[in-house]
């Protein structure tokens, strides 16, 4: 009889152990797991990023009412799945508090060198630790979600499949606590292993994709020095939505709040405003150098494009925009008919 009960006990332990292996990673500390199922937010999004090297005081408080999501950039992983210390934690706290006070959803953007992501994602142990640490960070800081900025998984180095595994596992764990997962991705206008590195298996598990449609000098033959033309935005959305089958509700069109010259040197949009440039246009002569950017008219056109065929817009980055009435984020809100007062 003792042997029978012993066998029953061992079998029970094995069943429990097997079930745990398939469960999303959870943390016993912090808030409890919600009892209701996770429901994704498919409303139109206005996303921006706040880099750690910016002073929160340099962005007007009123600007927070013009966005729906704000990501602090960046939290950096290590190859073993641990996380580096957050840069400027005081700024992180201040910016997140301002965002929350204005009803903005908050998140942390995770970035780092490609080699770190490739190594970390290739190890089940490192992925497990990474996901546990990211979940703990999001829960501890009461964030609404997490943004993955891996630039870029690729088919040429074998990391594309591991990216799928990482995002599936991270999504399972975040969604269990009703936290979203987004990803910053390539514009997809250049053929090759990088755009092929984002496999369609990722589409169902990520809540939305911030498509970085900028830094494309030379792509548009009609505007060769313009790094983020309207035509490039059209081509990017057509590729991801039509060619690749990304669901419309998950596509967020990236718009730069900065310009570039022919030498690929960048300058913030606010600098063009400060220099007295006509920012309804897409170019300005600053100190004898011609810069190309997205002015208010093009920004409105892109906002309308995103409203018509996608589900959001994203700006890199929050500080770059002007704080006054010539703000391109304000222009986008006006085009969308969105109240920000």
TrEMBL record:
Catalysed reaction equations from the record: Random endo-hydrolysis of N-acetyl-beta-D-glucosaminide (1->4)-beta-linkages in chitin and chitodextrins
Top-level enzyme category: hydrolase
One example GO MF annotation: chitin binding
A single GO cellular-component term on record: extracellular region
SUPFAM superfamilies with a match to the protein in the record: (Trans)glycosidases (SSF51445)
Boundaries of every GH18 domain copy: 44-339
Documented EC number(s): 3.2.1.14
Calcium recorded as keyword: no
Pfam families per UniProt: Glyco_hydro_18
Record keyword Protein biosynthesis present: no
Keywords, ordered alphabetically: Glycosidase, Hydrolase
Membrane-traversing stretches: none
GO terms (BP aspect): carbohydrate metabolic process; chitin catabolic process
Similarity comment: family membership: Belongs to the glycosyl hydrolase 18 family.
PANTHER family: CHITINASE, CHITINASE 12-RELATED
Protein's name according to its UniProt entry: chitinase
Organism: Pedobacter ginsenosidimutans
């Amino acid at each position: 009889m003792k042997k029978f009960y012993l066998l029953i006990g061992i079998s029970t332990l094995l069943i429990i152990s097997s079930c745990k292996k398939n469960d999303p990673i959870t943390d016993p500390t912090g808030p409890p797991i919600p009892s209701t199922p996770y429901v994704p937010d498919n409303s139109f999004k206005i996303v921006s990023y706040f880099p750690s090297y910016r002073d929160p005081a340099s962005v007007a408080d009123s600007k927070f009412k013009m966005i729906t999501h704000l990501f602090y950039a960046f939290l950096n992983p290590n190859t073993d799945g641990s996380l580096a210390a957050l840069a400027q934690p005081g700024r992180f706290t201040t910016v997140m508090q301002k965002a929350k006070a204005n009803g903005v959803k908050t998140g942390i953007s995770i970035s780092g060198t490609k080699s770190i992501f490739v190594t970390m994602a290739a190890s089940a142990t490192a992925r497990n630790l990474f996901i546990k640490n990211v979940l703990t960070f999001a829960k501890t800081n009461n964030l609404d979600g997490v943004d993955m900025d891996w630039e870029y998984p690729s088919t040429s180095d074998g990391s594309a499949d591991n990216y799928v595994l990482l995002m599936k596992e991270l999504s399972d764990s975040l969604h269990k606590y009703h936290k979203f997962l987004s990803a910053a991705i390539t514009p997809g206008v250049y053929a090759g292993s990088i755009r092929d590195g984002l496999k369609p298996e990722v589409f169902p598990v990520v809540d939305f994709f911030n498509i970085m449609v900028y830094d494309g000098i030379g792509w548009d033959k009609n505007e060769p020095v313009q790094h983020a033309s309207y035509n490039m935005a059209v081509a990017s959305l057509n590729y991801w939505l039509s060619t690749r089958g990304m669901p419309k509700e998950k596509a967020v069109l990236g718009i730069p709040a900065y310009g570039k010259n022919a030498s690929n040197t960048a300058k913030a949009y606010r600098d063009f405003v400060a220099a007295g440039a006509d920012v309804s246009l897409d170019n300005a002569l600053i100190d004898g150098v011609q810069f190309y950017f997205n002015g208010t008219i093009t920004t409105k056109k892109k906002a309308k494009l995103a409203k018509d065929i996608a589900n959001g817009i994203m700006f890199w980055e929050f500080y770059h925009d002007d704080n006054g009435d010539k703000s391109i984020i304000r222009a986008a809100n006006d085009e969308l008919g969105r109240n920000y007062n």
